[in-house]
Amino acid sequence: MSDTFRAVVIEEIDGKPKAGFKELSKKDLPQNDVLVEVAYSTLNYKDGLALTGGRIARKLPMVAGIDLAGSVVMSGNPDFKPGDKVIVNGYGLSETQWGAYSRFASVKSDWLVRLPDAFSMQEAMAIGTAGYTAMLCVMALEDAGLTKDDGEVLVTGAAGGVGSVAIAILARKGYKVAAATGRPETHDYLSSLGASSFVTRKELSQKGAPMAKERWAGAVDSVGGQTLATVLGQIKYGGYVAACGLAGGNDLPASVFPFILRNVSLLGVDSVMAPMHRRKRAWWQLAQDLPKDALAKITEVHPLSDVLSLAPKIIAGQIRGRVVIDIAK
Question: Is the separation of the CB atoms in 263 and 237 below 8 Å?
């Protein structure tokens, strides 16, 4: 058996980060206290950026991939034993820490979440950072006070990973959900997840009044930029927006009016460094509130060999739902 294994490594070539396949050995890995054999990973928007030359990796060389599900091989922490099935989301994987697109990953035991009994490793990565972030957004809205009786909830970037899972969760919990998307061909798909109405991407990406007609009790936004600003102007008095992404820009050309005249709350949601108690709660909630049939509808499984060709597609908004990466293939 070969001592080497395949990984997707980002290196600096001609002054620019470039991703490619490379053979590694265990001795090449960082020296952390747990060695995991990776079974599955995912393709998130951030992964797409990292693989297409975006400055995501803060040091090079870097193994890409921000999510993993796998089995413990060796552990210096008695809380985790060989054979234990675990998940890692975020914690700087693919940025400051070597990531998941590799047969083996050396990680810190402080990052590990035990795989919930409700999910297989493939299903956990069908959820991945996108789905886990969607759950954090729903938690943020409900912790702030949103209830299903308050009115319709808007989900932007609806056909993407965060949006698809957010719609499925909200619908399962009894909310009326509006889906914002620039792809009309996804309407049947989004309806099957629980969306009951639709808004065009163009409508939200254009500058509107600082305070427009009140439409939404709450919103999950993964787009940012002008879309987030427009959504804020449409939130009902006392409503909430959970913001978790910047696919449409990292600026916020908004007014303070919704905040000080309508008592609107903008809730920032971070998944990378979220404290462990919120991670565990999010995965517990996912087991309760994410229907397995919805998860199957939003998921495609691809081999690791496809990941470089898939990356530009997720950046271009050409991928629907979630992509699971089978590391062994």
Answer: yes
Write down the pTM of the prediction: 0.93
Which residues share a beta bridge with 221? 243
DSSP 52-78: TT-TT-SSSSEE--SEEEEEEEEESST
Is the pLDDT confidence value at 2 over 70?
A: no
**pLDDT tens figures, 220-230:** 999 999 999 99
Per the CB < 8 A criterion, the answer to whether 230 and 215 are in contact is no
CATH number of 129-268: 3.40.50.720
Locus of tokens 């199957």: 296
Q: Which two tokens stand for residue 175?
A: 């909310």
Which tokens sit at 254? Answer: 């908004």
CA distance 245 to 46: 10
With pLDDT > 90 as the criterion, what percentage of the chain qualifies?
Answer: 95
Residue 221's H or E segment, with its range, is strand 216-221
**CB-side neighbour CA atoms (13 Å) of 161:** 27
Do 129-268 and 4-115+298-326 have the same topology in CATH?
A: no
Measured distance CA(88)–CA(171) in Å, rounded? 27
Q: How far apart are CA 232 and CA 212, in angstroms?
A: 9
Q: Where are the domains of the chain?
A: 4-115+298-326, 129-268
Structure tokens at 52: 């297409």
**Three-class secondary structure of residue 81 per DSSP:** coil
CATH classification for the domain delimited by 4-115+298-326, as one of 3.90.180.10, 3.40.1000.10, 3.40.605.10, 3.30.230.70? 3.90.180.10
C-beta neighbour count of 40 within 10 angstroms = 25
Residues 209-259: tens digit of each pLDDT: 899 999 999 999 999 999 999 999 999 999 999 999 998 999 999 999 999
Q: Which residue has the tokens 């810190």?
A: 108
Query: pLDDT tens-digit profile of 5-63?
Result: 999 999 999 989 999 999 999 999 999 999 999 999 999 999 999 999 988 999 999 99
